[in-house]
Amino acid sequence: MKRSYIPVLILCAFLMMSIVFTQYMVHQYYFENYVTTLIFCGLNLLLFPAALYVYRKGVKTDA
Q1: How crowded is the C-beta side of 31, counted as CA atoms within 13 Å?
Q2: How far is CA 49 from CA 1, 19, 31, 54, 63, in A?
Q3: CA 3 to CA 22: how far, in whole Å?
Q4: 14 — phi, psi (to 5°)?
Q5: Which residues contact 36 (CB under 8 A, 6 or more apart)?
Q6: Closest by Cα among 45, 61, 46, 59 to 12
Q7: Cα maximum dimension of the chain
Q8: Whole-number Å distance between alpha carbons of 34 and 16
Q9: What is the pLDDT along the chain (63 residues), one digit of tens a residue?
Q10: pTM score, two decimals?
Q11: DSSP secondary structure of 1-63
Q12: How far apart are CA 44 and CA 12, in angstroms?
């Protein structure tokens, strides 16, 4: 059975975006830009279901 590495690469991209969004969110919170902080918090919250969807559809485990 041939493996597909596309879902793994997408999950890596989601992880990278999550790290960047979290760092930017903390930076904006430090400088008291609360609206931008909430925007990046929302983007972080949207990344999790997208990553979960990619994980369930793309990464198949053999049981």
Answers
A1: 9
A2: 28, 16, 29, 9, 24
A3: 31
A4: -65, -40
A5: 24, 28
A6: 59
A7: 52
A8: 23
A9: 577 889 999 999 999 999 999 999 999 999 999 999 999 999 999 999 999 999 998 876 544
A10: 0.84
A11: -----HHHHHHHHHHHHHHHHHHHHHHHHHTT-HHHHHHHHHHHHHHHHHHHHHHHHH-----
A12: 14
Q: Can you read off the two tokens belonging to residue 46?
A: 């949207």
17 neighbors 57 (Cβ within 8 angstroms): no
Residue 1's pLDDT is: 58
Q: Tokens for 3, please give them.
A: 């493996």
Structure tokens belonging to residue 52:
């979960």
Contact 10, 47 (CB under 8 A): no
